[in-house]
UniProtKB/TrEMBL annotation:
Gene name of the record: tatC
Organism, as annotated: Acidiferrimicrobium australe
Biased composition (Polar residues): 1-14
Keyword Hydrolase assigned: no
Similarity comment: family membership: Belongs to the TatC family.
Region (Disordered): 1-21
Official protein name in the record: Sec-independent protein translocase protein TatC
Transmembrane segments: 39-57, 102-123, 135-157, 184-207, 219-235, 241-264
Keyword entries, A-Z: Cell membrane, Membrane, Protein transport, Translocation, Transmembrane, Transmembrane helix, Transport
Amino acid sequence: MAVTEQQEPFTNGSAAAEEAPEPGSMTLFEHLAELRNRIIICAVAVVATTILAWFFYGPAIQFMRHPYCQFVHLHPNKALTKNDCQLFITGPIEGFTTRLKVSLYGGLVLAAPVWILQLWRFITPGLKKSEKRYILPFAAAATCLFALGVAVAIFVFPKALRWLILVSGPGIVPIFRPSQYFTLYVLMCLVFGLIFIYPLILVALELTGVVPSARWRKWRRPAIVVLAAVAAVATPSNDPISFMALAIPMYVFYELAIVVGRVLKK
């Protein structure tokens, strides 16, 4: 009996040790609470930057109208030059909704460093200690790549707009609504910015050992097809200039991600 009584505490302690959560682990409710907090921080940042963009609405629309004005001033069509690159609203509240949309779009772009950092912070609890040191460098690199994607979209948009107007053929005079024009402009910036972040995902998968660099090299040919398909779908204008401006950097980033992942893994 003495032996049995001594064994029981040992058995209960072993079961308790098996049921005890690992250090640093989180329950489902803790994950949901963490996600809620990150979303609230992102929402506050977007609201603040949207208010800021609201007050800079005038300079913003002048900047975004420049590609259209440049095309109109260089185009021989007299009907276009007569309009002097004006955008036309067709409803009494369209001007207000346009300003609201442009401010919100601008807020999303300006708040990119915040929501990118919060995304990485949300992923942090699932990483090892050796992997957590990459969080801030990854967030900084993602912000820079997002800004680079936006810059490429701004550079490409005038050529894409020219292609969209000329492809309609002769005898057709474009009269743009501001909501549609600005939506296309900002959507193109967001798409390019988000896609330029994708190589960081490849590097992260290499560092965590989910997908080794040898497998990315093995998947090079199928990846080229997938990247071309993504570029074709992601470019709102579907013109060849925008497609090449997105497809070529995506492939270059794919190769760079393989190299960077191998170097960091070593």
